[in-house]
Amino acid sequence: MSKRKLISIIIMCVCVIAIVALVVVYTVYTSKQIFNESANHFTEIYKQVNKTYSSVVNKNWGFLHSCLPYIEERSEGDSSDAQEIVEFLKAQKENWKFTSFYMIDEDGYAVTDSGVKRSFGVDSSYIAALLNDEDIIVEGERRDFDENGQLGDPMYQVTLFAVPINYRAISADGNGYENYIGLAITYNVDAMSEVLKVGAFSGHGNCRIITSDGRVLMADNNKQDPQYLKHLLEYASFTRSSKEQVEQDFKNKVQGVTTF
């Protein structure tokens, strides 16, 4: 092989390698740019969802807080005071269009104005939050007690908003007083889940409101998985961040995008 031909082959090989390298670099760069643009678009959409959701939550908590002075002034009052409170809340129900109102007792049960107790999944963590003077949201299922005092099967899902209250009222049987730790209103879960609907992904996206400790407050498909974050961290394979990083970002409420 002549020296000139050898040089030509080497030059061709170098050119091919350079072209391949440029294609790879361009592909990686383009892929990164597309991901970043998509991530920014994705983030902006869900910022709007978060803004809408926060507005709804604050509106309902604000309403409940506005009712507290009227109710707490009548704490430990007689039956006429209790009836005044019921009539007051019924009037508010017409204005605010919530489904029902309840008092939350020390065991986490929701008590109607007639003294009937129901369960909406207000467990020990929510009770602790109320006792710690924190507002709560519970995405739960209504369960009523049967004639034997046992909780029946779940009936339907509701969204419950509650704020701390310091209120004592005459018990349903008229013997003594009952202590209540929260004032609550409920909405049909379909109405609340509609707040999270996102039309930008042709029905292929899902939205969940998750607290920093992993509790799912609400999902747009009405299918609750209280352990969603735990299951995600346990079984998903993350490609743009580590499981530990995702978990830490949740705890620290850090905004971000990842893939799995």
Question: Can you walk through the features of this model?
Answer:
- This protein is an alpha+beta fold and 260 residues long.
- The chain has a domain at 58-192: Beta-Lactamase, CATH 3.30.450.
- It is 46% helix and 20% strand.
- The protein contains 6 helices and 9 strands.
- The chain has helices spanning 3-72, 79-96, 124-131, 189-193, 228-235, 243-252, and strands at residues 100-105, 110-111, 117-119, 136-141, 143-144, 157-170, 177-188, 208-210, 216-219.
- A 7-stranded antiparallel beta sheet has the order 4-6-7-1-2-3-5. The protein has a two-stranded antiparallel sheet with strand order 8-9.
- The longest helix has 70 residues, at 3-72.
- The radius of gyration is 28 Å and the shape is elongated.
- The model has no long low-confidence stretch (mean pLDDT 77).
Detail the topology: elements first, then pairings.
Layout: H1 3-72, H2 79-96, E1 100-105, E2 110-111, E3 117-119, H3 124-131, E4 136-141, E5 143-144, E6 157-170, E7 177-188, H4 189-193, E8 208-210, E9 216-219, H5 228-235, H6 243-252
Antiparallel strand pairs: 1-2, 1-7, 2-3, 3-5, 4-6, 6-7, 8-9
Short characterization:
The chain is of the alpha+beta class and about 260 residues long.
